[in-house]
Amino acid sequence: MVGPVLAVPLVAVPAVAVLGMYLPSVPYLGLATAFAPWYLGWLIVAAAAGGLLAAALWWRRRARWSALVAVTAVLAVAGASVIAARMTAAVEAAGARLDLPALLTLGSVRPVAPDAEEVYSSFDGKPLSLNIHRPPGGDRPAPVLVFVHGGGWVAGDRGAHSDDLRWFADRGWLTISVGYSLSSPSRHLWDVLHGQIACALTWVGDNAARYGGDAQRLSLTGDSAGGNLAINVAYLRAADRLRSSCGGAVPAVAAVSALYPAVDPAALYDNDYPVTGPRARAMAAAYTGGSPDQYPQRYRSIASATHISAAAPPTLIVLPESDHLVPPAETVTFVDQAHAVGVQTQLVTVPFADHVFDARPGSIGKQAYRQLTDRWLRAHGQAP
User: Fold this and answer.
1) Which residue windows are transmembrane per the record (predicted)?
2) How far apart, in whole angstroms, are the C-alpha atoms of residue 145 and residue 90?
3) CA 85 – CA 151 distance, rounded (Å)
């Protein structure tokens, strides 16, 4: 009995996950894209192991169920391998070089303590702080990479992606993660956050040198809602329309890298996919105070397309094709609009991937975000 008990789940779980990745629009089943990319290497291993076990049982007993399980395993391994190949090809075509054995990395992302924390301002009587990761000592000041965390403008904190920030710091950047005020059903900060992030950048301009950084070589990065804020702030600064909430001069932004950015909050509000749609709508409503029909000007002011100009800095966007939270079509449109006015843009679309597909160590998403951002910054003069 041990053989069937092991073989069936070893094959069934990968088979359902792979089927969901091929059918992302199917309610609930399609949400396999939200976790399967994290475990893609292990799905292949599990299905192969279960298939071999089922084949051995069939050889001994000629049971029909074992033959069915073995065939299902072959299909699951083939399907998962095609997915892995297509995801790998997409990011490697953009310049990444994946370490495929890393797909079998065990464990989860572990937070990395910053080297320093600083308060850059306050809001409603509460401090606004920064996490700082220093690069190894060098002969000259390091370029600065500022990260803006996601969370739908209602959640998250400056400790997010600390492993990535340490990775970039180890490669020569002074990395700084910005904490900002969060919205809620009773507090709508759509007209506050651009100024807060600008205030943080003003602090960076005044203080980066104390930590070995060169604020004249400044780039921004962010994910999801943080990607929206990073793009908006960089584009507003380029058009000389960004004002810091704490005064002072905001340094120029040389390049931007955004991971599944919520460039169009109105589309986020209109997301009608089961499970993720209500969550997306609640985030957008908390940030703005209501719907796009109620507050069209508020939504326009926070839409990244509103701030496009020919002066905008080079922008990289890594986009999961099957994102169930942030509709990807609007991001494609945004990139086309930016490119049309002369902004240097690169859109890397990753098939079968969903929101937060970079959340596990060694995953294709994790490797892609790091390597493509590193390559983009170096290509635009921000090499350490």
Assistant:
1) 36-58, 65-85
2) 25
3) 30
Q: Kindly state whether residues 127 and 268 are assigned to the same domain.
A: yes
Residue 294 lies in a domain: yes
One domain, residues 337 and 223? yes
Query: CA torsion sign, 107 to 91 to 94 to 262?
Result: negative
- Using CA atoms, how far apart are residues 95 and 257, in angstroms rounded to an integer? 14
Number of domains in the chain: 2
Please name the helix (run of DSSP H) or strand (run of DSSP E) that holds residue 279, with its range, or none: helix 276-288
Beta bridge partners of 178: 130, 148
| CATH for 344 | 3.40.50.1820
Please provide the distance, in angstroms rounded to a whole number, between the alpha carbons at the two ends of the chain.
59
CA distance linking residue 111 with residue 227, whole number of Å: 20
Examine residue 384 and state whether it is found in any structural domain, yes or no. Answer: no
Strands (E), the chain: 116-123, 126-133, 142-148, 174-178, 213-223, 255-259, 315-320, 345-350
Residue 160 pLDDT? 97
Name the pairing type of β-strands 126-133 and 116-123.
Answer: antiparallel
State the pLDDT at residue 212.
95
101 inside domain = no
Does a structural domain hold residue 170? Answer: yes
* Average pLDDT per block of 10 residues along the chain, 384 residues long: 72 96 96 95 96 88 85 96 98 96 92 97 97 90 98 98 98 98 98 98 98 97 98 98 97 98 98 95 98 98 98 98 97 98 98 97 97 97 88
Q: CB–CB of 257/219 below 8 Å? A: yes
Q: Over the stretch 182-237, which tens digit does the pLDDT of each residue have? A: 999 999 999 999 999 999 999 999 999 999 999 999 999 999 999 999 999 999 99
Looking at 78, 93, 108, the residue that finishes a domain is 93
Q: Which domain holds residue 211?
A: 116-379
Q: Are 198 and 72 within one domain?
A: no
pLDDT score recorded for residue 4:
64
Joined tokens for residue 157: 């904190």
Give the number of other Cβ atoms within 10 Å of residue 310's Cβ. 11
Q: How far is CA 95 from each of CA 81, 222, 267, rounded to the nearest angstrom?
A: 21, 20, 30
Measure CA 141 to chain center: 28
Looking at residue 5, its pLDDT comes to 63
